[in-house]
Each structure stands twice: as structure tokens, then as C-alpha cells.
Amino acid sequence: MIRDITLGQYYPGNSVVHKLDARTKIIATFLYIVELFIVNNFRGFLIAGIFLFLVIGLSRVPVKFIFRGLTAVFLIIAFTFLINLFMVDGRILWQWKFLSISYEGLNRAFFMAVRLVLLIIGSSLMTLTTKPIELTDGLEKLLKPLSKIGVPSHEIALMMTIALRFIPTLMEETDKIIKAQQARGADFESGNILRRAKALIPILIPLFISSFRIAQDLALAMEARCYHGGSGRTRMNEIKFHRGDAIAAVLMVASLAVIIASRYI
Amino acid sequence: MAFISVKDVVIEFIKYDESGHPASSKKALDGVSLDIEKGSFTAIVGMNGSGKSTLAKCLNGLLLPKEGSVSVDGMDTKDDEHIWHIRSRVGMVFQNPDNQIVSSIVEDDVAFGPENLGIEPAEIRRRVDDALKKVGMYEKKDKGAHMLSGGQKQRIAIAGAVAMRPECIVFDEPTAMLDPAGREKVMEIIEELNADGITCILITHFMDEAAEADRIIVLKKGKIAADAAPDELFSDPALIEELGLDLPPAIQLRDKLGLDKSVNNIDAIADAIRQ
Asked: Are residues A60 and A178 in the same domain?
């Protein structure tokens, strides 16, 4: 079962959004997040929301997948909503003992919740339409100018590539260790939370040791294949900007302008 | 001159105690000398701890000898200037298929070596496709590496070495973690690569695999205990036993049947049995 896990949450497809350069999508997502923080009224969110759903429509990712990302962070959204609801002072709408809801609080709570929902949908759209490996490549290219001031852009990207590569391997390893410890009578299921946390130690220690062993093997294999850092290295798949990327860039700038304008209407 | 030449190599592993003082030392290789000719197929066998893997790692400069020298096509592995050149000519495939694959996608992993060599993208693409076809994994090129079986992963690792277009590939127990079907396929690929003119050095536990080589070198406690053609080696079962090795199943059968000791390969034994 552990073999079948999908990496990240990529939804395979062939839409215009899928075909965009990873760099375009990273920058666009970043701009979109900035836009969400520029917005200061619900009309702005309406515009941002319409824009987002147009892009979702173009990506042909089923809405079901888009909302799956939300369920994971539902608690955070609910928490933010409640905090804002009860903590903001203003014209009292409802009161019970020490709890009170003000008009401003209600307004603010909805405002923050909508912002979070749009933010999460927007960023999960990027991971849904971009392969993890393309994301790391795009990030490497984007960070490249920063390597002049000492940011190890190539190393960061390689670390991410290797981390993604070894998630399934380490999961298999964990599975093996759990079974081995269970065969020796380890009990992971009973007892209170403290006991169960303690029961994890015999899994974590062998896992650490084996991940160091894997790292050592991998380093040797990489050296044998002439890896000597990012300098002088070429790539098989050079990522290139296409016409779609230019159109996306124009659209993003336009949406930014509209959002800024929405503050003053 | 020989393609790879190993001269009086000594490798010593020193164990340190908790305060950092040397506690004990063990010579993994103790005065090993050998020459590997271009295009040959050599098997290196020996018991656990005999120094086989250590020797393999010396051949492309992953380990540098304390005494003695290793040279590849006239370049010394101790020479920092040549080390990347040496590693691009002597590729290596390791035992654990999982721990040598760098990238999640098959073709990206095969491209890793050529990318490190700074080759043009179009040429890398050509080499990757060729290498994948060579190991029969071209159809899986855009699959995730974690979805493959052990044998398939090992074939990807071989493709990764082949894509660098090396003159020699060192296989360090490539079949030890595979099932019989995977083992057979990997051995087939090694023989094909050798037929294409790539010098192959196979470190192995399995004597039936070693029997496929032109030459078998037996290591024992860091020293070369025997260096002969398979036929020659297998005609002396007493020596094999003394070295702590098993005879290949076919040879064992030959001896059980009391056939002539000069009958050494599987076909000849089959003929002798038929008569």
C-alpha cells in the first residue's frame, strides 16, 4: 500500500495551466498571495475569487481535488474565524456571559476566513498543476540570481529533489521497522498518549540510523557519477518561457492593477 | 599498457575509540596488484570482509590507497586534476538499487551523470534514450522510480552509468538484493555491455555469475589468493574450498557424477551427461 502514495498532490493533466513554466506559476502564486493582502474589502475578494475560479476552470482540475486541500487546514480556518468573531470590539450584536459578538468582529471574521480560503486554494492550485520536480527546477532557476550574494540555490533545489525522491524509500523503511518491532512484541496501540509517544522511540532510532546509512550510500553513488556541485552542470530539460507564459504574466499584472483599484472604489 | 593498473595497494581502516585515539586497525587491502585490460570481463570474488568492495572503490578513486597506486589509462587516481575524468570513464553500479537513484523520475535519474559532466541538453537526451533502450527500460522513462521493482531499479542504475559513456563499469554486487528473475536480467545486460566493448568488472558472491567472466580474481583477507580463467579455477575444487568459496552448481554436479575435472562449462557438462 505504501508504494502507491502519490508525491505531493500533483493532478496529471495537459491544460494550459499545466503547460506553463514552473517559474511563471511560482511568481503568479506569489503575486496572488500579495494581492490577497492588498485587498481591503469584500468586493476585492469577489474579484480575486472570480479570477481564481477562471484559472481553475482553465486547469481542468476537478473542484473536488481543489477543496481537498481545504479540509486539511479546516481547523486553522475555524480557529481564526472564532478568534476574530469573539475578540474584536465594537457595536455589540449578541452577548452571553463573557462572550460577545460585535458587528465589526463578525465582519472581520468572515473577511479573514475568505482570505485564508482563497489563499489556500490559490497555492494548492500551483502544486496541483506542477510536478514536484518541475517546482524544484523552477525554484533553482528563480533563486539563481541570489547565488551571487551567497544563497546556495542549486543546493537547495537538489536537497528538495532528493527529499522528494526518498519520501517513499523512507516510508518503506519505516514500514519495515514497525513490522520488525511488532514481531519482537512492541506495542504501538495501547496506553495513553505519553506511552504511545514513548513507543515510537524504537521506530525513530533505527529510522535515523538507516537514513544516515542511505545518505552515505547515496553520497558515494553521486560522487561515482561525477557530482561535484552546481558549477559546470547542465540540465537535460532546459525550462523555457513560451507564449503562454507571456499571456499569464500580462494577466497577472492586470489582476494586480484591478485589485489595487478595488481598494479605492 | 593495461587500462586499469593497480600496484601494491594497501588500504587500512582505523577504528577510533571514544576519545579519538586509534584503537585498532585492519588492512582491507594488503599489497594488491593487478592489471585490467580494455574490453575484458573480470569477476572479483571472495568471502565477506575479503576486501572486494574496497578494491572496487579504489578503481575510480572513491577510496585512495595509503600505499601503492591505482591508475586508469595512465592517470593516477590520487591526482585531483584527473579525478572527474577518471570517474567519467570508470562508471560504478552499487549493491542497493534504492540508495543510488537520485531523482524521482526515471529519465531524470539517468540524466544525472551526463548533467554533471556538463554535456549539451540535446546530447544528454540522446544518451539517456540510448541508455534506457540498452537496459530495456525505455517504456518506463517517465515513471516514478519508487514504482519499480528492485531489478528494474538496478537496471535504471546501470543505465545511469551507461549514459556517461564510460569505457569501464564496475559492478559492486549488483544482484545481491534482487530476485532470481532480476538477477538473470542484470547479468544479461552486463554480458551485452561487455560484448559492446565496455570493460566490465563484476564483484559478486555468486560463483555461477563469476563463471561468466573471462577471468576470476579471488581475494582473501585483502590479498589476491587466485587469479585465473574460470575453467582453470574450477578444475581445482580443493583450491576453491580452501578459499572459502562455493563451486557453481553445474561444477558441483560434475563432481558428484564423477566426470572429468577438465570439463568446465555448463554446455560441456551437459554434453558429457548426455553421453
From this structure: no
Give the nearest chain A residue to B111 (CA atoms). A236
In angstroms, the Cα distances linking A194 to A187, A188, A208, B210, B270 are 13, 11, 21, 54, 66
Contact B124 A236 (CB under 8 A): yes
**Cα separation of B153 and B97, whole Å?**
6
Does any domain span residue A182?
yes
pLDDT per residue of chain A (265 residues) written in tens, 0 to 9: 344 444 456 777 888 888 888 899 999 999 999 999 998 888 889 999 999 999 999 988 888 878 877 877 888 899 999 888 888 877 787 887 778 888 888 888 999 999 999 998 888 888 888 887 788 888 888 888 888 888 888 888 889 888 888 888 888 899 999 999 999 988 887 778 888 888 889 899 999 999 999 999 999 999 999 998 878 888 887 777 888 888 888 988 898 888 888 888 7
Question: Where in the sequence is the domain holding A124, given as residue range(s)?
Answer: 2-130+239-262
A209 and A109 housed in the same domain:
no
> A83: distance to nearest CA of chain B, Å?
42
Say if residue A16 is in the same domain as residue A122: yes
Shared domain check, A122 and A172: no
Residue A210 inside a domain? The answer is yes
Quote the CA–CA distance of A159 and A180 in Å, as a whole number. 30
Same domain, A169 and A244: no
Q: Do A54 and A173 share a domain, yes or no?
A: no
State whether B121 and A164 contact (CB < 8 Å).
Answer: no
Query: Taking Cα atoms as reference points, which of A15, A52, A20 lies closest to residue A243?
Result: A20
CATH classification (class only), B4-228: alpha beta
Mind telling me how many Å the CA of A212 is from chain B's nearest CA? 11
**pTM assigned to the model:** 0.82
In a domain, A230, yes or no: no
Do A188 and A244 fall into the same domain?
no
Q: How many domains does chain A have?
A: 2
B44 DSSP β-pair partners:
B203, B217
Cβ pair A164:B117 closer than 8 A? no
Per-domain residue ranges of chain B:
4-228, 230-275
